[in-house]
Amino acid sequence: MLARAVAHLSEAALNANLRALSRRAGAALLLPVKAEAYGHGLDLVARVAARHPDVWGLAVATPIEAERLARLDLGRPVVLLSPAAPEEVGPLADLGVRLPVASLAEAGALPPHARAHLKVDTGMNRLGARPEEAVAVGRLLAERGLLEGAYTHFAIADEPDLSYAREQFARFQAVLAELPPLLAHAANGGGVLSFGALPGMALARPGLAAYGFAPPHLRAAAGLRPVQTLRARVNQRHTVRAGEGVSYGALWRAPQDTEVAVVGMGYADGYPRNATLKASVLIGGERRPVLGRICMDQMMVDVTGLDVGPGDWAELWGDGDITVSEVAAWGDTIEYEVLTGLGARVERRMGEEGAEG
């Protein structure tokens, strides 16, 4: 069957972003590929990243993701960033997955062949051991010969005021000073772009930045490029008569006879429904408005005067006229939610830039 919507991934853009971020961080990368590589496709991104000389390992958020990634056998360490259930620890250790540890109980329960990364909560107040507890946990792991790394996570690293992130990093450094040498990592994408090289950090974990996104005040200087271009096929073209409504609720009515293309992409595929009456797409070489309410499987676009028909493609976002950032703004949300919400019905393809669907 033909793909109705395709997310084209640029290998060149991904590799360039990884190179730029590693150089800015002055460290190798532990690349987050959680949530289907931020909606880009875990397998596709992981295979490219595993060949990149600046990538030390790959990080995920759930045990299921860790198992799947480990079984790809890509020759790079797999690090689980969120806790595993007790019954999952042994099987994950058997696969070589690096496990997060944040308590003496977790440290004591690890099998002898496990490798652990100590999670230190320096102010995110989400996961991890508080600094006053983390040293004891790290020492127990070291005594057992299981301690490979330690990490923390910045709560505020992509805003102009970085004072809170500096406080967090100071707390993390104080913990590391009490432990033997290890692979330390703290900087997310905002941290890499805001701070550059952080002393004592062997690794950096840029997430969405690796896929080409960062706040405007950081993005340009980094030279990041969006990796993904999303296109969907035109399913039908028809004429809407003057005065007729389009889509649920008839929120838009044609002021005159209007040629409409029905594009096979909707909110079930991850396009934000809240973009209704605000969104545009690139079709037939022009930016054209989406008419009426965005549906579960379709959206309707004004193609009056364009040579567009079934089988042609509309570009919904990419590295050009319409960006994910713009779509997110239309949907009253953020790039993370738009990208990670991209549905399973959208085919992912890694290849040359501009490859057609």
Automatic annotation (TrEMBL):
Substrates-to-products reaction catalysed: L-alanine = D-alanine
InterPro entries registered for this protein in UniProt: Ala_racemase (IPR000821), Ala_racemase/Decarboxylase_C (IPR009006), Ala_racemase_C (IPR011079), Ala_racemase_N (IPR001608), Ala_racemase_pyridoxalP-BS (IPR020622), PLP-binding_barrel (IPR029066)
Active site residues according to the UniProt entry: K34 (proton acceptor), Y248 (proton acceptor)
MF terms (GO), sorted A to Z: alanine racemase activity; pyridoxal phosphate binding
Keyword presence, Isomerase: yes
Keyword Protein biosynthesis attached: no
Entry cofactors: pyridoxal 5'-phosphate
Residues where N6-(pyridoxal phosphate)lysine is found: K34
GO biological process: D-alanine biosynthetic process
Cited Gene3D superfamilies: Alanine racemase, Lyase, Ornithine Decarboxylase, Chain A, domain 1
The protein's name: Alanine racemase
Organism (species): Deinococcus gobiensis (strain DSM 21396 / JCM 16679 / CGMCC 1.7299 / I-0)
Source organism phylogeny: Bacteria, Thermotogati, Deinococcota, Deinococci, Deinococcales
